[in-house]
Amino acid sequence: MSQRPLKLKFIGALVEQLGAQLYPSATATVAELISNAWDADARNVWVNIPLGKSWTDDDVIEVLDDGHGMTREQAQSQYLVVGRKRRLQDKGITTDGRLVHGRKGIGKLAAFGTAKILECYTIQEGQVVSFRLDYDAIRQAEPGADCEVEETETQELLCTPDSTPLANGTRIRLSKLRLKRAISEDQFLKSMSRRFAIDQADMRVFINGMQLQRFDMELEYRFPKDGQPSGYECQVGDDGWGTEKLPSGKEVRWWIGFTPKPLEAEYLRGISILGRKKMLQRPFMFERSQGVQGQLGQEYVVGEVVAEWLDTGVDIEDDLIQTNRDQLKLEDERVQELLQWGRRRLDWALSQRLAKRRKKAEEATEAPDLTELLKDFTPTEQRHLGDIAVKAAMIGDPDPDEIHDFMEEVVTGFRDRAVRELMERVRVEDEGFQSNFWGLVREFSLIDARKNYSIIRARLETIERLDAAIKSGAKEVPEIHNTIKMFPWLLDPRWSLLGDEVSLDTFAEEYTPTIDKETGIRLDFLFILQPKPPAPSDELLVVEIKRGFKPGGSSIHRANETEVNKFHAYVLAVGKEYSKNSNSPSVNGLMIANGYTQRADLIRESLQEVQGVTLEFRTWDNVIENTRRLHTGWLEVTRATRVSLGQ
Asked: How many folded domains does the chain comprise?
């Protein structure tokens, strides 16, 4: 009994592995569609893609080109055949003599990494073909069955963005976009510029109306333009590219550059490999060592290498590029020669950058003002301090004033043993430590700025609460009294009670104010401003507070002559008690009231002239306004500091 022969069958879900998973980004999808336009001998490609916003169900991506388009027969026998080897036809050269980008015949499936619907409208010499591919329908196709393509009809003309009709060309429209997150316009443009090295005279690409430019960045150094490797035969062209031959005779063209500041975006960092004017390997570091020394300087590296021989074959055995077409088969032994060369060249470039930065740093630290700063030290100390200045100048990109300010701090604390030990570490530590130095300095500054910003915002809220309480007629005790005791800086920023510099009500062992026998009233506060123990107190301040308004806030509460006289008596009593000490502090007084009776006002004016003590009289409006203005100013300073530090 004969049996049916075994057959290899394909199911529609294969499109998921060949499309959605191989091309999971919009950049990869659009790049493949641009490559299709290149292979169609297009002179112009117009891309419209929603950037800088989250995608919705109504958003679409369109790629239009003025290439040769397709007839219905060509669409069927070429475009709609998955796995067709494009390079077997006409030796992989287009009608206009371009080297073909397409190879495996699956790039068309890249659209399904980004969208579920692909609509193709193509015209050649007046013959229009229009069809639609549905990702979900293809995935559900039975094994071995052909996927029927939905042909569509349209009366619209194929026109350029300026409404010029095209006699030949193709438009691919993608809808039901799968990716929803917003794509940065700057990131998309830079990523796309790295993927192609197409001359503008050959083909122009416009993205949302902007012409795509050749990859370029601001560089501090670019090799071999700024220095050539010795011991190698490297020819440097007028364009700054170097040309070398590998031991096997294969040719590479290259440049390696270093940006002034670290590249935070990984998609920019590294060296890309190009062939046929297209990226064959996304930016990388030639698989270098990833230790501290190996990583040093890599965050500044950009570059390109052209190796046409990597993309010349037509069969799978000749192919050195992975299926997604933007990564080399790095494990293939035929790629090892390029990797070894790349590691050597990158190591050389990194060492050249380090040498040039050292020379630049040494020149910067020879400035007269820095020499003057170090003149009082011994020659040995000057050398050590000079080394530290050079290290500081090499790290990051500090300006001369920043280096000078840093060295002033170093010089100020140099004779302190701990500071000397830290500076010696900076001088001898490896570059991995030093590369983080200025970042740590700025980070500590940022932390301090953030902390100050939060504190000042909270203080401004407290000021407003006190102002409202005063105006509503709050009593001295307990409302105002408790607020001032908790937040003494409301009266004067010096009294912030930070550390040991200011004490409040800690005078019990030295002096306990007595209660007035007639009125039963005692002074409100005694602030002791003193250095850290065991140093003696150097200033005492007696504070008496009175309510600002009468209950309900209807009118101002005015202090009378008795209250003013008792305040004076309190200050004198404290001064007399402390005068018994051998190192007696100065004793002063502050009284706060929103107004005074006519008699009290005369006494107040006379008391301000008394010798031996300083008596100050303020209003609540004056206290709150001054404190509010001062903290508002601090808030602006800390806000500006945070902005300058990058937050």
From this structure: 4
389 and 346 inside one domain: no
Highest mean predicted confidence (pLDDT) among 92-101, 192-201, 315-324, 558-567 = 192-201
Asked if residue 642 is part of any domain, the answer here is no
8-state DSSP, 78: I
DSSP state of 324: T
Least Cα distance to 107 among 31, 196, 13, 11 occurs for: 31
Within a 13 Å sphere around the CA of 41, how many CA atoms are in the beta-carbon half?
12
Burial of residue 299 (number of CB atoms within 10 Å: 0-12, 13-18, 19+): middle
Whether residues 484 and 608 share a domain: the answer is: yes
Quick one: which of 181, 642, 211, 169 has its CA closest to 442?
642
End residue of a domain, out of 350, 377, 396:
350
Query: Does one domain contain both 496 and 613?
Result: yes
51 with 195, same domain: the answer is yes
Distance of CA 624 to the CA centre of its chain: 40
- Which residue shows structure tokens 């057959």? 7
Is the CB of residue 314 less than 8 Å from the CB of residue 345? no
Same domain, yes or no: 20 and 151: yes
The pLDDT tens digits for 149-159 are: 889 887 788 99
Picking from 380, 411, 435, the residue at the C-terminal end of a domain is 435
Based on the fold, state whether residues 535 and 615 are members of the same structural domain. Answer: yes
User: Residue 30 domain-assigned?
Assistant: yes
Question: Does 291 reside within a domain?
Answer: yes
Q: Quick count: other Cβ atoms within 10 Å of Cβ 517?
A: 6
Q: What digits encode the pLDDT tens for the residues 226-259?
A: 999 887 789 999 999 999 999 999 999 999 999 9
Residue 196 vs residue 615, higher pLDDT? 196
Q: Are the beta carbons of 472 and 553 closer than 8 angstroms?
A: yes
Give the pair of three-digit tokens for residue 620: 């609540």
pLDDT reported for residue 144: 65
For the stretch 100-125, what's the b/e string if a residue is b when 16 or more beta carbons lie within 10 angstroms of its beta carbon?
bbbbbbbbbbbbbbbbbbbbbbbbbe
**Overall pTM > 0.70:** no
Strand, helix or coil for residue 142: coil
| Type of residue at 412 | T
For residue 271, the one-letter residue type is I
* Confidence band for 449, pLDDT divided at 50, 70 and 90: low
Tokens matching residue 612: 């031996």
Q: Within this chain, do residues 578 and 610 fall inside the same structural domain, yes or no?
A: yes
Measure the CA–CA gap between 580 and 122, rounded to whole angstroms.
104
Name, in order, each residue with C-beta under 8 angstroms of 267's C-beta and a sequence gap of 6 or more. Answer: 187, 190, 191, 194, 282, 283
Helices H, strands E: what count in the chain? 17, 20
Three-state SS string across 219-280, please?
CCEEECCCCCCCCCCCEECCCCCEEEECCCCCEEEEEEEECCCCCCCCCCCEEEEEECCEEE
Which amino acid belongs to residue 195?
R
Find the domain containing 369 and state its range.
365-435
3-state class of 433 per DSSP? helix
